[in-house]
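To: structure desk
From: M.T.
Subject: fold request, one chain
Message: Could you run this one when you get a chance? Sequence is below, nothing fancy, just the single chain.
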Amino acid sequence: MHTQSLLALTEALQQRRFSSTELTKHYLDRINNAKALNAFITIDAECALAAAARADKLLKNGEGKTFTGIPIAHKDIFCTEKMTTTCGSKMLTNFNAPYSATVVKRLEEQGAIVLGKTNMDEFAMGSANENSYFGPVKNPWDHTRVSGGSSGGSAAAVAADLVPFATGSDTGGSVRQPAAFCGISGLKPTYGLVSRFGMVAYASSLDQAGALAHSAEDLALILKAMAGFDELDSTSINQPVPDYLAALNKPLQSIRIGLPACFFHPDIDHDIQQAIHTAVTIFEQAGAKIVELDLTLQSLWVPCYYVIACAEASSNLSRYDGIRFGHRTSKAKTLQELITRSRTEGFGIEVKRRILTGAHLLSSGYFDDYYLQAQKVRRMIQEELQGVLAQVDVILGPTTPSCAFKLGEKIKNPTQHYLADIFTVAANLAGLPALSIPAGFSAGLPIGMQLIGSHFSEACLLNLAHYYQQCTNWHQTRPQECQKEPK
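Reply: Done. Structure tokens follow.
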């Protein structure tokens, strides 16, 4: 069952070829057999099986919706009433949200069954999923390598067929980069298309809810359910949600694909460059026009992103003081000591690093020189990308400069970690939609290809990705150990 696509699973359930209870038990068994990956923080088997039983009654009566009876997982950054929301941090190990995120509610309204919450970099800060209080997530293709971050738990769970799809959040590439490392498809929608209500904030102007699945077809089905205006989210945009699934098979003859020269410099892994050029050939044969681009501000993407992200993180995480909620120290004698010790004990090293960096950037002596300048550069980056996307429909290139690196390899050098997002952060700075799909392998490790489009061009991105996946089978390839049936 776990080898079938999401669309095939929904059809099989509606046609009663197997029950939701059988499917849910199957995935729970697979999760139990894959504990070594450390992909999950929380599992609620009892609640999931009860929901599956209810789904079977609805399906029997012909009352099923899009995802009725489909097991899924949520990144542990989305608030859920029935499970703890930890954000991968000691600070929130016992936090039970009084409400569920809009994304969680919308998927549940379409019948999805939540099996559990996936592991993640603490407060979504990281590019390797090594910063979690609950330990690192391992890559299903090679347990000695990272799964990518911060949505590494969701990516590993989907890649290992522990769930058909999972939610994620993308602040600077946190859906696309782990999707590339784990050999699956990951979508970051346009900022404002999917509600952020109930998604714990890291950097509010950059954060966006997304999804991870095996194929563009699956993502089209998921996005239709997740997208749409939410009056509870002040950044939500009120406009009609298209039928992404119906748009998958449009012809590519008029599509213009831009190739930035800066995405192909010598430091990029040779196999990755070769895989992208092979993909370009496939699109050319379909009638797409290839346009060479020059992104002059690419070298400023990462520094601009980290100034803004750290500044916003410092502000957002100031609420965790050990008083209102979150971890509270047992060793304090004064109010100041309570706050200081609670934050010292509750936050991990990377979170502390970014909070301190952000506080420094926002201080009176440095605000104008760093934060204000970064906002001006951000506007320049936005304008350059919008200008380029007026000439082409899509910007194409690698998702990451290398394949998944070894666990612990870059942990002592934060700058090397940050450079793993060198191709992904621009989409967040400009609020653009971006998609990563599998494009080959290098030494047995997956390669990711990224497509970036103009605002609300998700249908175009998914159309291109779907065509490519019809011509190749990279998205259907699974890690060898994951092909085994649970005992």
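Reply (cont.): The chain has 15 helices and 13 strands. Let me know if you need anything else for the meeting.
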